[in-house]
Design brief:
Strand order of the largest sheet of chain A: 1-8-3-6
Largest sheet of chain A: 4 strands, antiparallel
Number of strands of chain A: 8
CATH architecture of one domain in chain A: Sandwich
Oligomer: homodimer
Radius of gyration of chain A: 18 Å
CATH topology of one domain in chain A: Jelly Rolls
Order of helices and strands of chain A: HHEEEEEEHEEHHHHH
Largest interface: A-B, 36 and 35 residues
Shape of chain A: globular
Chain lengths: 194, 194
DNA sequence: CGTCTATTTGAATGTACTCAAAAGCGGTGG
DNA sequence: CCACCGCTTTTGAGTACATTCAAATAGACG
């Protein structure tokens, strides 16, 4: 079985910090590849999240289930994205999120333990994760504001801009769940859009 | 004029990292106190955000103005909270947010320049800010999910839990703007709650 | 091919908004 | 101290956006 292609994750990290050969080698050595089949769970609500995952191919989604049993998608993680339940990862308490594969997916896992050791061994990584978390925070702030002022149709347009690789590839009910409407309403909305 | 009380910010930081005397002294030396009158702006949409602010007393709010001219409150920053336009701060591009005092407020400002120098001089601070940004990210993720599945009334209850010191101290229209409803609807909603 | 899930459609309902107007409230100047 | 001004809050009627429930249709996959 051929090794997973790790050049993508190096390219991803190189956007924000520069690694020398040793650092790169060490970093790659602590990553654990994991294949996960469509619909399988990387994390279930109530589990403890013990790693941060990077998507090599395929796609993941993270969501909660509300009291009416509806899935509420927090976000999708297509190729070249990171995903984790940040709450559970930092507190080591029961996860709020489910993280599930929406296609057969290859991941590289960085365990919490290794990640924290990495911060000491190569402080640049603390910088790297600070920066991507800052960006994620900004994205979530924007989404909060969008939720306060945009209609479902405008939120759908934003979704398409954010995930151009996904908008025509995902079951509609997933998109509906992300923008926060029922599948029925989403269907009617699309009909009236063109 | 008496000096601003800086013990609060040291206590805030000590929640996550431990500073020795020199580090504490250096950190305090780079903070710039600023008083800001009720309704005055720390940052206006379009400005470049050049500092992170810590609230010693009073209260700030950050918000956007949507295309219909409505304020949309992203969050409040009461005593012991940090506030900034993260997008503008990290990119040094035009701010999306307005940051305004909702009471006479005393701030301690940490300039972007000093903050980045601090990361090199005392790497613990990179850890500190990574941790508080992680927590802020989790809070915003929860708020996104709340926006997807909760009614206005339930969002109001969450608001009261998040800001127990504010819920009965703020003009209703500010709260309405935070939970994402019109002041008129908020008024009717409250009448029906009890 | 049959089963299961996703999507579409329609009718009735509910939640929240718009617009307009009245009432309350706080600060300021006479 | 009171009167006035501006802003916030309340109230009501009509409307728009989105949901619920039910049923029909279409697609995916073994």
């Amino acid at each position: 079985m051929p090794d997973i292609d790790k050049s993508l994750i190096i390219k991803n990290i190189s956007k924000h910090i520069t690694l020398d050969n040793n650092e790169e080698k060490h970093f790659l050595s602590i990553l654990k590849p994991q294949k996960i089949k469509k619909k399988a769970f990387l994390l279930k609500e109530g589990d403890i999240c013990r790693a941060t995952a990077f998507v090599i191919n395929g796609c993941m989604k993270s969501f909660t289930v509300d009291k009416n049993g509806f899935e509420r998608v927090l976000n999708f993680a297509p190729v070249d994205w990171w995903t984790a339940d940040m709450f559970s990862l930092i507190s080591q308490r029961a996860a709020i999120l489910n993280i599930q594969a929406i296609a057969d997916t290859q991941l590289l896992l960085l365990s919490k333990q290794d990640q924290e050791a990495l911060y000491f061994q190569i402080p640049k990584f603390e910088r790297f994760f600070r920066i991507i978390i800052e960006k994620s925070l900004v994205a979530h702030q924007m989404r909060v504001l969008d939720g306060l002022s945009l209609t479902a149709e405008q939120r759908y347009i934003k979704f398409c801009e954010k995930y151009p690789q996904l908008w025509n590839q995902l079951p509609q009910k997933e998109i509906a769940s992300y923008i926060g409407v029922t599948p029925e309403f989403f269907s009617k909305m699309k009909r009236n859009m063109d």
